[in-house]
Amino acid sequence: MALLDDRLKAEIDARRDALVALTQDLVRIPTVNPPGENYRDICDHLAGRLRGQGFDCTLVRAEGAPGDSERWPRWNIVARKEGRRAGETVHFNSHIDVVEAGHGWTTDPFGGEVRDGRVYGRGTCDMKGGLAASIVAAEAFLDLCPDFEGAVEISGTADEESGGYGGVAYLAEKGWFSPERVQHVIIPEPLNKDRICLGHRGVWWAEIETHGRIAHGSMPFLGDSAIRHMGAVLEEMERVLWPLLEGKRTAMPVVPEGARSSTLNVNSIHGGEPEPEEGFTGFPSPCVADRCRIVIDRRFLIEEDLKEVKEEVRGMLEGIKARRPKFSYEIRDLHEVIPTMTDRDAPVVRTVAGAIGKVLEREPDYVVSPGTYDQKHIDRIGRLHNCIAYGPGVLDLAHQPDEWVGIDDMADAAKVMALTLAELLAPR
Ligand SMILES: [Zn+2]
To answer: Which residue in 328, 259, 324, 329 sits closest to 297, CA to CA?
Structure first.
């Protein structure tokens, strides 16, 4: 085994240029989401590459999923290479979409420029570098170990940046991530090459609306301002809710440290007269606002129960209602995700940790992500719990201008992935 490990490491080193070239090819297909462009092109590109290595490739369109249309179809690819004998299946899942480039770039965001040992471009770090690393790792393993047992799968999936409903969630519903088909899942998100991400916190989004009565702005006492009522809500959050949430600490190893508490963000606030149409140059009119809405983004911990999380906010609103004359509100759920955390003793965790030890000569850090990613669907819809995120790239660079991935980091992560395949699938 030690001999195979050394040969795999050397093989990845020999494929460094191929790794960079593949990353560049993927970055040069701009798969910006929203709206979700060029998904078919990148799937065809991946299919061409992987069929050449003997993978069976299936392109799956998430028909009827949110965002799927004739103009912007939600294409996904699942590639599978069967071993010579029965065994377990190891699956690498990467999302193919990237967020918009935004402003502030000093290089072409879709050019894939190589400079100072880095590949630059939108999606290099999050997460086409990780996808390329998993492909090169699998190719090296298959070449050196053609008599492996079980199967290797690589998927490229749509829409992770917008919730994953046209991607992993759809595939999980169709059975692609059932524990009978797949036993180990690695998601090469950019969590740093020496860290294993076990899961993520939970999410609850809700809209709160306060009600008032419209009147002339010169005589506000004749109306009832929904904005002032919302002010009371925000005041109560400052006074009671935020200190309460900050005091709730989790045993989950969330990074960064600040996210080890419960958090709540007010994503938006809208009240009164709508913004004027673009191009309108007149003044607004004087009115008392009769509606005010906020969207809250509450991130919760594995120790918390979603029902209690919701009760906390509802209880706060009821408390205001009891004290404040004419206070009336509505609250509406928008979106929720339960926290997930894979066991540290799970087989995929132990195997990747061992491979990190062999490649980087150190123990990995175990982390949990403050925000969610596609593990939620694999865990909840697929009921497959032996799943982690592990991949190259510095998480802080994701979604930023001048995003890059380090070539050494990609090569090291590819070695860890190849050694993981050897440990799980090589015959002994
Ligand atoms: Zn990502």
So the answer is: 259
- d(CA 404, CA 275) in angstroms, rounded, equals 37
| Among candidate residues 113, 129, 83, the one with its CA nearest the CA of residue 405 | 129
Question: What residue has token string 């050494």?
Answer: 408
Dmax over CA atoms of the chain, in Å, equals: 85
Q: Is the peptide bond before 34 cis (omega within 30 degrees of 0)?
A: yes
Distance 58 CA to ligand 1 centre (A): 22
Backbone angles phi, psi at 29, to 5 degrees: -100, 100
Q: How many other β-carbons are positioned within 10 Å of the β-carbon of residue 425?
A: 22
> Which tens digits make up the pLDDT trace of 282-324?
998 999 999 999 999 999 999 999 999 999 999 999 999 999 9
Tens-digit pLDDT profile for residues 204-227: 999 999 999 999 999 999 999 999
Q: CA-to-CA distance for 37 and 140, rounded, in angstroms?
A: 31
Q: Which helix (H) or strand (E) holds 422?
A: helix 407-425
| Ligand 1 geometric centre to CA of 198 (Å) | 15
Please report the beta strands in 286-418, taking only residues with DSSP state E, as ranges in sequence order.
291-300, 329-337, 340-341, 365-369, 387-389, 404-406
Alpha carbon of 97 to ligand 1 centroid (Å): 8
Separation between Cα atoms, residue 258 and residue 248, nearest integer Å: 11
State the pLDDT at residue 275.
83
Instruction: Enumerate the H helices of 30-117 as residue ranges.
Output: 39-51
pTM of the full structure: 0.90
Interatomic CA distance for residues 185 and 183, integer angstroms: 7
Which residues have their alpha-adjacent CB atom under 5 A from ion ligand 1? 126-127, 189
Q: Phi, psi at residue 296, to the nearest 5°?
A: -105, 145
φ/ψ region of 165 (left if φ > 0, alpha if ψ in -120 to 50, else beta) reads alpha
CA of 188 to the centre of ligand 1 (A): 8
- CB neighbour class for 75 (10 Å; exposed up to 12, middle 13-18, buried from 19): buried
